[in-house]
Amino acid sequence: MDFSFTEEQRQLEDTVSRFVAKDYTFEKRRAILSSAEGWSREAWQQLADLGLLALNVPEAHGGLGGGPADTLLVMNALGPGLPLEPYLASAVTATALLRECRQGGELLPAMAAGEIIAVIAHDEPNGATTHCRVTGTDFLLDGRKCVVAHAAAVDFLIVSARLDDELALFLVPRKAAGLTLDSYPTLDGTRAAEVRLEGVRLPAAARLDAGREALARALDIGLAALCAEAVGIMKAALDATVDYLRTRQQFGQPIGRFQALQHRAADMLMHYEQAKSMSYLAAMRCTAQDAHERRRALAAAKVTVNRAARFIGQQAVQLHGGMGMTDELVVSHWFKRLTAIELLAGDSDTHLQQFIQASAYA
């Protein structure tokens, strides 16, 4: 496999890294985190000005026409900044779905400019199913969606619902009559919401001309980007931990001279390299047309990334001693995000099962 990147792609990664270092510092993020909204419209516009919201938008709709490799580099660089804005949910996953829809031609230019935000609302609580009924020329939606990322910040939700025997997708304005949100902060500081739909009436034009397969492809693209974000955070946590071991003095010498701690740092590096390689594989296969091949690669990547995220996150906190648990140190926030990523889009058991099932068709 060729893991080399072009000069333009490296420049893109450097641009994002500089943005995080200068304009999305840890102190700025803490201020955004404590705000009532929990995210920043100003920072969102900065991402738009950098062209990052247009990265996955086709050139025909005013975007840059980037692909999974470009997204991987951006997520690697954004990860350490722990952005509270809906970049992954809107600019990657929802954009990937809308690219396959006729309505994307109307929405994507505004999304690329940062004027409209849309996210997918697909997961449902146990025992709940979102149904759709046809009444005249309109649709009526009833049901519930759970842990919808950034739902309170968006303009549109892309809601999946059962229509007869098929899965249909609808573009639902967040302020539609009959739609209510119960918003809350999550473990890693981002916001999510439980969404209830009670007789939400939509015109025929609100139904997207895409279905289950397009949704699966978009979610897989988002999953590959999530793995890349985790790898970026792991690298930052590893570097910070090694720097701490080199500078923290104990018994008249840096604690990094103790062999036991050197071994733990070496194990962190091994986990990071494995996760990095599998995130590359995920980026290369997330657009594969063969659903079983795509599922095998992504499931394997998510399991490897999950294990590395847990090991590196825990080791980074432990090797920083008591400071690693404090809210004032970014290490504790990296640990929270890595812990959240381990559970997002399926935990290790879920993806191991998916890998086994997909392998049966290989």
List keywords for this structure.
9 strands; three-stranded mixed beta sheet; 362 residues; alpha+beta; globular; 51% helix
In short:
The protein is of the alpha+beta class. The chain contains eleven helices and nine strands.
Summarize the structure in words:
The chain has 362 residues and is of the alpha+beta class. Helix 7 runs antiparallel to helix 8 and helix 8 (259-285) runs antiparallel to helix 9 (291-319). The model has no long low-confidence stretch (mean pLDDT 95). The chain has a four-stranded antiparallel β-sheet, with no helix packed on it. Strands 1-4-5 form a three-stranded mixed β-sheet. The longest helix is centred in the middle third of the chain and has 36 residues, at 212-247. The chain starts with 6 loop residues before the first helix and ends with a helix. Helix content is 51%, strand content 17%. It is built from eleven helices and nine strands. The protein is globular and about 80 Å long.
pLDDT averaged over residues: 95
Helical fraction equals 40-55%
**Which strand order does the major sheet show?**
2-3-7-6
Distance separating the two termini: 20 Å
Q: Report the biggest beta sheet as strand number plus sense, adding barrel if it closes.
A: 4 strands, antiparallel
Q: What is the overall number of helices?
A: 11
Number of E strands: 9
Quickly give the structural class: alpha+beta
Radius of gyration: 21 Å
Content of β-strand = 15-25%
Order of helices and strands: HHHHHHEEEEEEEHEEHHHH
Global outline:
globular
Low-pLDDT runs of 5+ residues are none
